[in-house]
Amino acid sequence: MSSSLSNVGREVFKLTIFAGAIHLCSENVAQVLPVSGRSMSPTLNPDFYETGKQDLVFVTKYNASQLRRNAIITFLQPTKTDGSISVKRVIGLHGDTVISRRGDKVMIPKGHIWVEGDNAEDSRDSNDYGPISARLVQGQATNILLPFVRARRLRDKEWVASDTRVQHRLQIHKWPEEWDS
Q1: Mean pLDDT of the chain
Q2: Is 88 assigned a catalytic role?
Q3: Residue 35 φ/ψ, nearest 5 degrees
Q4: Which of 9, 114, 174, 175 is 20 to 30 Å from 46 at the Cα level?
Q5: Quick check: is 39 catalytic?
Q6: Residue 7 to residues 4, 15, 16: CA-CA distances in angstroms?
Q7: Contact criterion met (CB below 8 Å) for 79 and 136
Q8: Per-residue confidence at 143, pLDDT binned at 50, 70, 90?
Q9: Under the phi-then-psi rule, with left for phi > 0, alpha for psi from -120 to 50, and beta for the rest, what region is 127?
Q10: pLDDT (tens digit, 9 = 90+) per residue, 10-66?
Q11: DSSP string of 82-107?
Q12: Does 176 or 155 have the greater pLDDT score?
């Protein structure tokens, strides 16, 4: 009887180590995340309302120093305290000036970013709550895993955002005159 208890103990120990390794990876290396809603349509969940199907994305974890414009990121929702995760595209970095959808000129402060959904009509994003702290960023969505017919790598360059609303801090060209009025 004692040998069967020690075998059970070994198996429980192995399972605990395995579960700990999975948790460590999902918190610090990568995770698989379902995307709900249509705020990132057509890039993610293009048929969400018609079929209810969600895209499943692979998310790599990284720190805020790796943020880039047009990257699709996951972050803790700034308006909720329950740990809810949101998926949006980085539109502007600290030092950039963005013209919000309401027409306000917003300078992004140090340590913050401006995020928007690809589907402007169905997205709650920085246009609603302003720039978010870069500390809220959890990772970057790098691949669509499911559904299989849409499985592919997500590339920053494939999305052509309306850059006419963003004045990057390193751009040399002039602001459109109507922005100064």
Answers
A1: 81
A2: yes
A3: -105, 125
A4: 114
A5: yes
A6: 5, 12, 14
A7: no
A8: very high
A9: alpha
A10: 777 767 766 655 655 556 657 888 998 999 999 999 888 788 889 999 999 875 567
A11: S--EEEEEEEEETT-EEE-TTS-EEE
A12: 155
* Amino acid identity at 113: I
Query: If you search the block for the tokens 């402060």, which residue do you land on?
Result: 109
SS3 state of residue 51 = helix
Long-range contacts of 121-125 (CB under 8 A, 24+ apart): 122/37, 122/38, 122/39, 122/41, 123/39, 123/40, 123/88, 124/39, 125/39, 125/88
Instruction: Report DSSP state, residue 109.
Output: P
On whether the CB atoms of residues 51 and 41 are closer than 8 A, the answer is no
Q: Which two tokens stand for residue 137?
A: 């960023």
Task: List the catalytic residue out of 41, 86, 88, 126.
Answer: 88
3-class DSSP state for residue 155?
coil
- In the structure encoding, which two tokens stand for residue 9, read together? 């103990």
| Choice among 84-98, 101-115, 118-132, 165-179 with the minimum mean pLDDT | 165-179
